[in-house]
Structures are given as C-alpha cells and as structure tokens.
Automatic annotation (TrEMBL):
It comes from Alsobacter metallidurans. PANTHER family: 3-OXOACYL-(ACYL-CARRIER-PROTEIN) REDUCTASE, NADPH-DEPENDENT REDUCTASE BACG. Belongs to the short-chain dehydrogenases/reductases (SDR) family. InterPro entries: NAD(P)-bd_dom_sf (IPR036291), SDR (IPR050259), SDR_fam (IPR002347). It comes from the Bacteria. This is 3-oxoacyl-ACP reductase. Coiled coil: none annotated. Pfam families: adh_short_C2 (PF13561).
Length: 261
C-alpha cells in the first residue's frame, strides 16, 4: 500500500529511542522527510547512521526537550521558517512510576507541563501551516492506561487522560481543514521503558523481573510483548493518505491486553 508520504515532512518528538525512534524510521522508510527530535541528539544520530543509504538522507536530528518551553518555540520557529510540517507525532517519555496517594503536587505540575501543556503549545504553533495546506496529521502517543489504568503509574494514567480530552476536542475542530487528529495507545511494547517499569514492579513486589514479565505476558492474549516496529507501522498508516477518514480516535496496539469494550 502506498501511504502517500513522499514529499511530506514529519516531526517526531521523543525520537531518540523506543517508540519515537521506530516511528521516525517507519515514516522515513515510507518516503517522508523526518525531523527526529529529542534531548539526546547523539542517540538519534546513532540510529540514523544505521539506516539504509536510501533512507538515511531523509532523516535529520533536532535537539528538543519537551519540558523546556523556549526549546519548543525555537523548534517551531525553525520548522515554520522551512514551511512547517505535514505530520506531527507528539511523543514523550513516560513519567516516574508511583501510586496516586503518594504523588506530590510539584510532580503533577512538572510532568503535566512536559507531557501535555507544552505539546498542546507545539501543536498550536504548527497547526496554522497545516490549515493553509488543507492537509495534516496530528498523532499523539499515549498509553493503554487511559482506558484501563495501570497500577503504579498514577502520573501517566492521569495526565495522558487529559491529553485524550484535548485530542478529541481538537479533532472535531480541524476535521474540515483536512487535518486528522488521533491517539495511539501502546500496551506492553518491548522498549527500554517497559524494561524499566518491569524492574520497578519487581523491586516493589520483591520478585524477579522475569516473573514480572511472565506474569504480564500471561495477561496478553497474544502471549508476548509487541515490537516497536509493529507499533510504528500503525502510526505510519495513520500518517498517510489512506487514513484520511480516520480522526478523533484512539487505537490500541496492545496484543488484546485491554479488557474493556
């Protein structure tokens, strides 16, 4: 299937590793010009160097800390001066684990700024250029925890649920401009982040990390963790022309793990 991403430009936030890096690679493979943004530019440059020659030239690295509003505005200024972007993938690292009764106010405010408010601002800055072109894709990576709260991830469950409300509202506002707005909800995808969460749960419950992973897999109908590439392929489809009538949705990529209808 031709996703129609040739001559499209994408910004992928949080692209130094894991899901963000996999999404950036998938979009570039499909023909898009990709700006991969994250705090660790050296990590981005490392995986760019490993790409096939025909794909490598379509990806560039940009330093961006979503917790720093000045960097958000500087990135937006640069991209707008170059004509804006057609595809925006909002992706942030997950916040520290913790239970709701223990998370302090300062942690809520800090993480909300980085995971929500600054992404709202970045989207707002880049949106008018999409509206002028009458074409755009805004895709936000969240978590299956917004449908089925995940134990010990209070910050993620709460903040990403707020992002869901924003995404659905924005989708209704810009659909007539040829812009789609969707969310993708990863379950247990085999990334460094999942390894860290498994380790945290193992320490909290005083069991081995292998036992945590085996227990988690037993709850997934597919019987395994997903791969970043499987996740990224869904994002690439949503970014393309064939998904032009898909908007205001949240799509699970979790091997069937979410039990709610």
């Amino acid at each position: 299937m031709d996703l129609g991403l040739n001559n499209k430009k994408a910004l992928v936030v949080g692209a130094s590793r894991g899901l963000g890096a996999a999404i950036a690679r998938a979009l570039a493979t499909e023909g898009a010009t990709v700006v991969a943004a994250a705090r660790s530019v050296d990590k981005i440059e490392a995986w760019i160097a490993a790409l096939p020659a025909g794909v490598r030239g379509r990806v560039s690295a940009l330093k961006l800390d979503t917790g720093d509003l000045a960097q958000i505005d500087a990135a937006a200024d640069k991209l707008l001066a170059e004509g804006g972007v057609d595809v925006l993938v909002n992706n942030t690292g997950g916040p520290p684990p913790g239970v709701a009764k223990d998370v302090k106010r300062d942690a809520w405010l800090t993480q909300f700024q980085s995971m929500a408010a600054n992404l709202f601002h970045l989207t707002q800055r880049l949106l008018p250029a999409m509206q002028e072109k009458k074409w755009g894709r805004i895709i936000t990576v969240a978590s299956s925890g917004i449908e089925q709260p995940i134990p010990n991830l209070a910050l993620s469950n709460g903040i990403r649920s707020a992002v869901l409300g924003w995404s659905k509202t924005l989708a209704n506002e810009v659909a007539q401009d040829g812009i789609t707005v969707n969310m993708v909800l990863p379950g247990r995808i085999q990334t460094e982040r999942i390894g860290q969460l498994d380790q945290a749960n193992a320490e909290r419950l005083n069991v081995s990390i292998d036992k945590i992973a085996q227990s988690a897999m037993a709850q997934i109908p597919a019987g395994r963790y997903g791969t970043p590439e499987e996740f990224a392929n869904v994002v690439a489809f949503l970014a393309g022309e064939p998904a032009s009538y898909v908007t205001g949705t949240k799509i699970r990529i979790d091997g069937g793990a979410t039990r709610s209808v």
